[in-house]
Each structure stands twice: as structure tokens, then as C-alpha cells.
Amino acid sequence: MDEEAKKFFEELSHAPEEEISLEPEVELVRATSIPLKEKRASKKETQISDLMEEGVGQLTVDVYQTPNEIVVESTIAGVNPDDVDINITNESVTITGKRVKEQKVIDEDYFYQECYWGKFSRSIILPQEVDAENSSAIIKNGVLTIKMPKLNRQKSKKLKVKFE
Length: 164
Description:
There is one protein chain. By secondary structure, the chain is α+β, with helices and mostly antiparallel strands. It has a single domain (6-149), classed as Immunoglobulin-like (Sandwich). The protein has two helices and eight strands; from the N terminus they run ααββββββββ. The chain has helices at 3-13, 43-53; strands at 56-58, 62-65, 69-75, 84-88, 92-99, 118-125, 136-140, 143-149. The strands form two sheets. The chain has a four-stranded mixed beta sheet. A four-stranded antiparallel beta sheet has the order 2-3-8-7, with no helix packed on it. The termini are far apart.
């Protein structure tokens, strides 16, 4: 081994330990709920709480497709079907409504408060045009399912010319 290579390896072996770290840096996140009195608001939580202060919460949704439909599912347990409005256009769906709490509880009596009560709304731009007229919606076991038949404008139809 030449003198330059020896010097290089000696410098590597004498490097301070703090410069070379074989341990990956890991940030631990608490996976359980935090009681209200201990909770510190993150930026996202602040945005959500701003929405709630305005009186409108946002639904969580799953949107997927089958060969013939676009399907939207959302958990809306505790919502009366009469309190849900669904507006469908060819390109979007908007779900609005309200979840009414049956019992009044003062804030000081809560240990945890994670459920959202009040008005909610969610608009979804659909990935493909749908047939709004033939769409359907049902609530079963607290899950809202909206089925919207796909419009396939790419299909071509061959016309036969008639002579008169």
C-alpha cells in the first residue's frame, strides 16, 4: 500500500465518532390519543379546528372505481339520512349534512373529544365523467355509499346510412 493510501485510512480511523453515525435518525410519533388538556395543536390540527370554528367539518372518504362505476364511501355514523344532501354533477360530488349530538356535555367534563358533531361538507372532483341522473346513495351500518355510473364518451357507435 502506498504512503498516500495509508495516510487516508489512518485519517478515517481517527475520525471523531460524532461525525460518523451508523444509527438512522428516527422521530417517534405517539400513536394514541392525547387528552385535550395535554394536547398541543399542530399546523394541520389548527387548520381543522379553524374549519370547526367556522362550523363546518370535513368528511373522510374513500373513492374507487369498478368497471362500470365510480364509488364514494364515507363513515357518517350517527347522521340521520334526512340530514344529508348529495349534489352530483358529471364531474364532481358534494356531500353536506350535519351530525347532531343527543346529549349536551360541558367541555370541562371531557377527558377525550375526538368525534366531530355539527355541520360537515366534502366536495370531490371525480377522475371521470359520471351519469348524475342514474346515481344512487345508501347508508348502511353507518357507511354512506354513493354509486355513480361512468360515462364512456370514448365509445364510438357505428351508424348505418339509409337511403330514401
